[in-house]
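Students often ask why we bother encoding 3D structure as a string. The short answer is that it lets us treat folding as translation between two languages. Here is a chain of 107 residues written in the first language.
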Amino acid sequence: LGTATFPPQWRILLIDSGQEKNSRDHISDVRRQVHVRDPKLERYRMRTEACSAAVWEAIKLRDLASFIDSTNNAHGLMRDVQDMSTPRMEMIREAALRAGFLCVTIT
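And here it is in the second language, the structure alphabet:
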């Protein structure tokens, strides 16, 4: 992907959700998906790769609207396709959006 300088007028806030994570279970789930050739995993991979490329392109072009769209889309894929969110994380995300943040993704 190369490098891109983050636009100095843009700001990012990183927040630890405090949500306990179990990577071992998630990795096991993904391995199972790979083993059974789950088409859902391939759709997720293709769509997240497209989101990632769009985020990088938006940064390079300083296109805030595309950055917002792509970041929010990536979160939606993690949540809706791979079930990588929790009600608590979504509550934090929704509160941040209501508070005026333009895009929010939580891991």
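Translate back mentally: The first helix runs from residue 23 to 35. Keep this in mind for the problem set.
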